[in-house]
Amino acid sequence: MGHSISYYLNKSGMSAVVVDESSGSGQATKAAAGMLGVHTENHIPGKYHEFCLRSRDLYEELSKELFDLTAIDIGLSPFGMREVATDERHVDALKSKYAAFPHLDWMEGDQLRNEITCLSDQVLGALSMKRDGHVEPYKVCEAFKKAALCYGGSLVEYESVLGIEKVGDYFEIKLKHESIQVKRVVVASGAASGRWFTETGLTNPMVPTKGECFAIKPRKAFFKEALFFNNFYIVPKPDGRYIIGATSSPFNVSTDTTAGGISSLMNLAFHVVPDFKQASLENYWSGVRPGSADGVPIIGEHPDYSGLYFATGHYRNGILLAPSTGQMIKDLMTGQQVDKSIKDMLSPKRFEPKGGAIYEYSS
Ligand SMILES: Cc1cc2nc3c(=O)[nH]c(=O)nc-3n(C[C@H](O)[C@H](O)[C@H](O)COP(=O)(O)OP(=O)(O)OC[C@H]3O[C@@H](n4cnc5c(N)ncnc54)[C@H](O)[C@@H]3O)c2cc1C
Q1: What residues pair up with 308 in beta bridges, in sequence order?
Q2: Which of 20, 153, 210, 348: disulfide with 10, CB 3.0–4.6 Å?
């Protein structure tokens, strides 16, 4: 998220520096499958759907611009997604979603199996979301990072932010051996963002949620569309890998990948694509999603500290929402108009204890 924000800020003529205690992709970002799941993540139209849609649409232009600036191809897939039902309840839910989003296409099970012949007869129907593709998260992160530098940004890597202090009109960012003075700060530290809420008088809204994935590489390509099921997904990548994810374990920050987690995903995947059993296992990994207590990201200025912003809590949509988040922070800082209902929906103000914050979690 930090690199996307830096990209939009530096492009607009501001001077942004990213401080990152790890190098390259962040912890959740490098674990992500990269789906741009606008319609797997929304059941009805509304402001959140609008925010997701805008971000997905930004990727088309961005992929060209980032390539021109950095020569990195972010792997934007033109093949779309299918949300697939394997039980009648999910069929009903998908039909309701179809009624809410009539521009999507409904497919009966037979129709989908004609198109993707490796699918088992467990498949009962699907919603086709032709414009909701996916990207390579690691490459998106690298491309934003390099492009921000092209626009004059700077980067401090392998350094932890140890403290943030307001000193007059400035913020002092404390690192191990030095401090950096800045006019504005954006906290975009993923699942580790909680302390910056509590240290500034807000309730900790973070729900760190561990997720595990694995990848296989079959000898032949089976399908190109990302398939999203009730409790797992399969995302084909341009290099021939199929990413299968993801488990979900709230308030778990361990980065071990467990045999139990991966075997449960394997069972689910083999049930719908039996041929996957013959594929070679490439690798497996885990990451910690920055969930938020009310399931909505936290993007905006601190209610009491002018110049202190948050951009976190994106849970399982941070890759999808990286462009609209970067753009929104830039718009807020440069005084450009931001839709009031989106601003209110995402505002950190909802975690003000005196405002009667409903959620109280410890870190
Ligand atoms: C298994 C899995 C699958 C996912 N799949 C998808 C998907 O298909 N589509 C999608 O849209 N999203 C997906 N997500 C969610 C997505 O990965 C996250 O929402 C997103 O990456 C969050 O980005 P972030 O920058 O907020 O956090 P991170 O990527 O975790 O980055 C946080 C950064 O903050 C740095 N940091 C933390 N504390 C400090 C400090 N004190 N000082 C300096 N630096 C610090 C860290 O080094 C890190 O680089 C998935 C996540 C997981 C785990």
Answers
A1: 185
A2: 153
**What is the tens place of the pLDDT at every residue in 109-160?**
999 999 999 999 999 999 999 999 999 999 999 999 999 999 999 999 999 9
Nearest C-alpha to atom 12 of ligand 1 is from which residue? 317
Centroid of ligand 1 to alpha carbon of 271 (angstroms): 30
Which token pair is 56?
Answer: 């997905």
Q: Indicate whether residue 34 lines ligand 1 (CB < 6 A).
A: yes
Spans of all domains in the chain: 1-80+131-363
Residue spans of alpha helices (H) in 161-274: 194-198, 259-272
List all residues 6 or more positions away from 153 whose beta carbon is below 8 Å from its beta carbon.
6, 7, 9, 10, 15, 16, 17, 18
289 three-state secondary structure? strand
The model scores a pTM over 0.70 = yes
172: β partners: 165, 181
* Residue nearest atom 34 of ligand 1, based on CA coordinates: 189
CA–CA distances in Å: residue 24 to residues 146, 230, 314: 10, 32, 19
Q: Which of 189, 296, 310 best tests ligand 1's pocket when mutated (most atoms within 8 Å of CB)?
A: 189
Q: Which residues of 88-115 are buried (b: 16+ CB within 10 A; e: fewer)?
A: eebbebbeebbeebeebebbebeebbee
Reduce the DSSP state of residue 36 to 3 states and report it: coil
Ligand 1 atom at minimal distance to the Cα of residue 320: 11
Pocket test for ligand 1, best of 289, 320, 328 (most atoms within 8 A of CB): 289
